[in-house]
Amino acid sequence: MPYYPLYPFTARLAGARVRHYRIDLDTLQVDLDSLAEAMSERTRIVVVNSPGNPLGNVIDPATFRRIDEIVGGRAVVIADEIYNNVHFDDEPYSAVTLADEMTSPLVVTNAFSKAHRMYARRVGYAIVPDELVHPLTVIQHHTLLTTDPVPQFGAIAALDHQEGVRELTGRYGARRDYTLERFGEVSAVRAVPARGSFYLTLDCAEYLRRHDIPGSLALAERIMRATRVATVPGSDFGLPDTLRLSYTSARYEEGIDRLAELLHRCPSGRCGRRRRHRATRLRNRPWRRRYRWPTPSAWTTCAGSARDVPPSRRSASCATPAPGAGGPAG
What we know:
The protein is α+β, with helices and mostly antiparallel strands. The protein has 2 domains: about 5-160, Type I PLP-dependent aspartate aminotransferase-like (Major domain) (Aspartate Aminotransferase, domain 2, 3-Layer(aba) Sandwich); about 160-280, Aspartate Aminotransferase, domain 1, CATH 3.90.1150. It has helices at about 5-15, 30-40, 60-70, 130-140, 150-160, 160-185, 205-210, 215-225, 250-265, 275-285, 285-290, and strands at about 45-50, 75-80, 105-110, 125, 190, 200-205, 230-235, 240-245, 300, 310, 320. Strand 1, helix 3 (about 60-70) and strand 2 form a beta-alpha-beta unit. Helix 6 (about 160-185) packs parallel to helix 9. The chain is globular.
């Protein structure tokens, strides 16, 4: 752990049992001992995501070789490289370059939706051993059938615009650095220094403990109400004491400023809520500003009841009291 939520749900749909290995939050390295413990003779697939979602961790070639040694040909290794174009501190490489020296079958998956920003018109692909081509083709024929030709031609054109990928990586790297700088000033919350991908994780374990907040979902809700900044609870990724941030917003730095200011200035995450809720209540009572209540002689009383009704809501069943008859009946 952590993991991208699609992995365990896909495995459950296939009727598979999921076992997790760990990634160290301090070093961002795969815990190889936990991987060895999770392996068994029944293991069929090992999923590796680099750069990772949500941590932005990067698995270097040496570690990938160690993973292959642990798997030892007993399972297929799936290398999810959807964020492989977005490395901040390392030279990008693909696991496919190691395929010839691996003892385990290797599947490499990638797509154009991230680095090439084809978010809605998605085109993905997989590099697989020859023996997997036919079964995967059968699955595709009975699920996706085919990919729309328009995005396919768009993906081909995107390959000629690598400068856009480099520009995106530089922009997101700068946002990573800005986040680390701003949260260096916030006690009890640690920004985990991502090395790639679109995401950065905030380790809020100490913050949650100090302020008796039940978990990352409750904290994310408080942040949303107080600052209008959206964060993703780490519980979605198997890390209940964290929050995930995404670099993709054009107002990212403004959001980080709001978030850092809130958690630094107001450790409980509740600052400003009372004033904001009071303003909301006043906005929801426009009659306090524009409606002027009538004098008692203008009131009416509905026949058959003792309910008082102002003139603007008077119905045909109500009779106006005679002059001097006092006010509405009590």
